[in-house]
UniProtKB/TrEMBL annotation:
Organism, as annotated: Galerina marginata (strain CBS 339.88)
Coiled coil spans: none
Alphabetized GO MF terms: ATP binding; D-alanine-D-alanine ligase activity; metal ion binding
Keywords: ATP-binding, Ligase, Nucleotide-binding
Family: Belongs to the D-alanine--D-alanine ligase family.
Keyword Ligase in annotation: yes
Domain ATP-grasp as annotated: residue spans: 115-218
Any Pfam family hit: Dala_Dala_lig_C
Descriptive protein name: ATP-grasp domain-containing protein
């Protein structure tokens, strides 16, 4: 029988990631690379993984696919933080990998469809309307007609509202102008975003004026649990964009990780399980007001 304090054997880990510096060198813009990781972040994760065994630095999805196609890696697991891509290729050859599968990623990378699923299951989410991708509009299409026909038309009938592309993250496509306070501003922002992101749904939501949180979660299914709740506060009321390629964030983390307020963690965990997320990640939540009984 192994001793109670015996250590598990070291792992052979393949580490897949998207380096921001490498994508910038290929000619992509700072905005297009905003979701990719800095070399400092990649190195810090690799250092932690080395405590568990040996680490092979793979790079992005293309590098992972090439390695699998041209060799027979003996990794015990692939630790994958590539943006928007699952480790399906490694799983297909019998190598376990971390984090959510392709189905969950495809859903969660589309904010509009994610909101539809959460609303169906009774998870609180801001009233919304989905303006279809501009490249599908007929000649006489009026974008605001979608809002007038939605089941949320009453809630969206007054301002302020918030408008954003459905498939971007890290503040991409977001500036102070996305919060609109009248019909003219709404039309202008929808026009601008649909021109810049012609293949994406444009999401129009009730503006949520309350507190903002990030909930860290570890685990899968019923075994998932919240590691803590982090509250964010903006350093200044007005900013040009939360997507700052220099790395100087425009918000302050005002509370460390704990489990208060508990209601936030409960909503995050329910969402995590319903969306079938795996292993580890986060859920972002914003309250509708600053009241004590505010809804996420």
């Amino acid at each position: 029988m192994p001793l109670a304090d015996s250590q598990p054997p070291p792992l052979k880990i393949g580490f897949a990631y998207d380096s921001r510096a490498e994508w910038l060198a290929l000619g992509y813009s700072a905005e297009q690379c905003a979701e990719f990781d800095t070399d400092a972040t990649i190195d810090a994760i690799a250092t932690s993984l080395k405590k568990l065994g040996t680490v092979q630095m793979i790079g992005g999805l293309k590098s992972l696919t090439k390695l699998l196609a041209t060799s027979k890696p003996d990794w015990d697991i692939v630790f994958n933080i590539c943006e928007g891509s699952s480790s399906g290729p490694s799983r297909s050859v019998g190598i376990p990998s971390t984090f959510s599968d392709s189905a969950t990623l495809s859903l969660c990378l589309d904010k509009a469809k994610t909101k539809m699923v959460l609303e169906h299951y009774g998870i609180p989410t801001a009233a919304f309307a989905c303006i279809p991708a501009r490249n599908t509009w007929p000649m006489d299409f009026c974008p605001l007609s979608v809002i007038e026909r939605t089941i949320h038309r009453d809630a969206l009938g007054s301002f302020p509202l918030f408008v954003k592309p459905s498939a971007e993250g890290t503040g991409m496509g977001i500036t102070q102008a996305n919060k609109v306070v009248n019909r003219e501003q709404l039309l202008n922002v929808v026009e601008d975003l649909s021109q810049r992101y012609p293949t994406q749904t444009i999401l129009v939501e009730r503006f949520l004026a309350g507190r903002e949180f990030t909930v860290g979660i570890v685990g899968t299914g019923t075994e998932a649990f919240a590691t803590g709740v982090l509250e964010h506060a903006f350093k200044k009321e007005k900013f040009d964009s939360p997507n700052d390629p220099t790395g100087d964030a425009v918000y302050l983390d005002v509370f460390g990780y704990d489990l208060k307020p508990k209601g936030v963690a409960d909503v995050a965990l329910k969402s995590w399980r319903l969306l079938e997320c795996r292993d580890g990640g986060r859920v972002d939540i914003r309250h509708d007001t600053n009241d004590a009984n505010a809804a996420a």
